[in-house]
Predict the structure.
Amino acid sequence: MGSRLIKIATRSSKLALFQANLVGERLGVPYELVKVHSGGDLDLQSPLSVIGGSGIFVKEVQAAVIRGEADIAVHSAKDIPAKLPVETVVDTFIERGDPRDCLVGSDIAGLKIGAVVATGSTRRKALLKMLRPDLEVVELRGNIATRLVRLREVDAIVMANAALERLELVDVDRQVFEVDEFMPQVGQGAIAVERRCDDDRVASILFEVNDRPTQLAVEAERGFLSQMGSGCTLPIGAFATVNAGQIHLSALIAALDGSRVIERGQSGRDPKLLGSNLGALILSEGGSELLMEAEKD
C-alpha cells in the first residue's frame, strides 16, 4: 500500500522541477511529476501586484491536487498565500535552504547614484529604497535565467540566494544580504508540500520527510502573514529561527517607498500564536496606519 506511485504537481520551471524532484527522492516510494503552468508563468509582462500577486504561482498547482490529478504539490514556501483552500493542508517542509536575498551584479555600496535595480517584489523594492533612496527600482519578471539576462539592461537585480544555490549558479557576482539588514520574504528558502486534508496515506509518508524546525519557523512566519490579512499589498517580511523548541520571530511591514519601516521581534513556542501576536503588535505600533494609507492610494 505504501509503495503506490505518488504524483507530484509542480510548476515547470527549472527551479520548480529541481525542488519537486528533491521532495520525490525523499519519499521512499515511486513518484512522477505532473507539470502545471501557473498564471504567473504565463504572463511574464505584468507586475505581480497587477495580475494577482499572492498565490499567482500556486493556484493551478493546488488545483491539480484538489481535482485528484496529483497527490501532493511542491511549492516554494514564499509563494503560498496566507489562506489555503479548505481541501488542502501544508504541514510538510524540507529543511530550509538559505533564506537570504542577494544583489546580483554589484554590491549595494558600489552602485552609482541613480543606478537601476530590477525586482518584482514590493518588499525588495521598499528595502532597496530604505538602504539607497536614490536608486531607480524597475520591474523584474521571469525564470532565473531570464532574470539574469536582464543584467545587460540594468545595473543589478535582487533575487533569492537559495535559487542560485539550487541551480548551481554560485559563480555570479553578488552581495548576499544578512537577514537583519534585508528581511526575507515569509517562507523564503523553504520548500513546502501541500496535500489533501483527507489523504491519510500521503500524510503518513510525508510525516517521515518533514523537517520539524523548518516547519515551526515557517508556521510562525505564516502566522504573521495571516495577521496582516490576505489582501495586504504592502511590503512585509518575516524570519524565524528555532533553538530547542523555542522560536524567535522577527518581522516587518514597510511603506511602499521604504520611507517608513516597522520592525519588531518576539519569542515563543507556539508558532502560529507567536506569528499572530507579533503581527498584532506591529499593527498596533503603526502597521495599521500604513495599511490604511496604502488603501487610499
